[in-house]
Write a structure and sequence with these properties.
Blueprint: E1 7-11, E2 32-33, E3 36-37, H1 38-48, E4 53-58, H2 63-69, H3 73-81, H4 85-92, E5 100-105, H5 112-117, H6 120-123, E6 128-131, E7 135-138, H7 144-155, E8 158-164, E9 174-182, E10 185-193, E11 204-212, H8 215-221, H9 233-240, E12 246-250, E13 254-257, H10 261-273, H11 279-289
Parallel strand pairs: 1-4, 1-6, 4-5, 8-12
Antiparallel strand pairs: 2-3, 6-11, 7-13, 8-11, 9-10, 9-11, 10-12
Helix pairs in contact: 8-9
């Protein structure tokens, strides 16, 4: 049996320039969808998959992330004093007991591959997951990472979370070429970082979910700069294929690209509509704001 995936790396050192000025002083991972920041959705997904050590690769401007997961004595005391027990419960249970956070400083932004490499000493000789928080995925009954972890437990090798993307969007993703190995499952044969549509081996894009074996660290240490002058995780995965099998998994659920303004707004609307305490009123508001079109009269 393979070792279970208990550690997850969150590369969160990026500047979030697409959301300026909102991200000038606030990390993009702290942008909220309804009432939770993106990083909390990502952390909850990891915990649902059985991870109990959350490793954040941060920069000097990301103290708000640490504060969010830390205990806030003053806030809790005020909520308790005012008998706001439900809010106190929410604040005290952002992460369940037994889940630990580790923060590692990425001194220089050298790419996703470099960010993952920064976590080597903490991860050690264990399999681990990587979650990009601005890819918000609603997996329904099972989180995306939980689905992938089940495949990892079965196959014992690295697993890449994937979805079919539009042909014109291949330049935004690592693109995988696979041999089908079951429903939603493929054996990776090739992976290319952000190819032009004419050069893409397929339109199966790797999204922000990975389960990787520790051998990836040895590969990353020897990986040179690739697209954008950065150390690309995709390039290291392509080399990892020389040593071991890698599986792809087309997850069940819906992904929102919250690294784009449109994707972020879509997530806000759809999560708002299904929010337990807000959904009904929000639906009524949207209906009044954009009333449904009347069917055209028959001529």
């Amino acid at each position: 049996m393979p070792k279970p995936v208990k550690k997850v790396v969150f590369p969160v050192a990026g500047l979030g320039t697409r959301f300026l000025p909102a991200t000038k002083a606030n990390p993009k991972e702290m942008l909220t969808v309804v009432d939770k920041p993106l990083i909390q959705y990502a952390a909850e997904e990891a915990v649902a998959a059985g991870c109990d050590q959350l490793i954040f690769v941060t920069s000097s401007s990301k103290r708000a992330l640490e504060d969010h997961f830390d205990k806030s004595y003053e806030l809790e005391a005020q909520l308790e004093k005012k008998n706001k027990t439900e809010l106190l419960r929410i604040v005290q249970n952002i992460l369940p007991k037994g889940v630990n956070c580790v923060y590692i400083r990425q001194a220089e932004a050298l790419g996703l591959g470099h960010a993952v490499l920064c976590a080597k000493d903490v991860v050690g000789d264990e399999p681990f997951a990587v979650i990009l928080a601005d890819d918000l995925i609603d997996g329904g009954e099972k989180s995306c990472l939980q689905q992938m972890a089940e495949l990892y437990d079965e196959r014992g090798c690295s697993v890449l979370g994937c979805e079919t993307v539009a042909n014109e969007d291949t330049e935004k993703y690592g693109i995988a070429s696979i041999k089908k190995a079951g429903d939603n499952i493929g054996k990776l044969e090739q992976i290319v970082e952000k190819p032009k549509p004419a050069d893409a081996p397929s339109n199966l894009g790797v999204v922000g979910r990975y389960i990787l074996t520790p051998r990836i660290f040895d590969v990353l240490e020897k990986t040179g700069k690739g697209a954008g002058g950065e150390i690309q995780l995709t390039d290291a995965i392509a080399t990892l294929l020389d040593y071991e099998h890698i599986m792809t998994y087309e997850f069940k659920g819906k992904r929102y690209d919250c690294g784009s303004k449109l994707g972020y707004l879509q997530a806000t609307v759809e999560y708002g509509l299904k929010h337990e305490g807000l959904g009904k009123d929000f639906q009524e508001y949207l209906t009044s704001f954009c009333p449904p079109m009347k069917p055209a009269k028959k001529s």
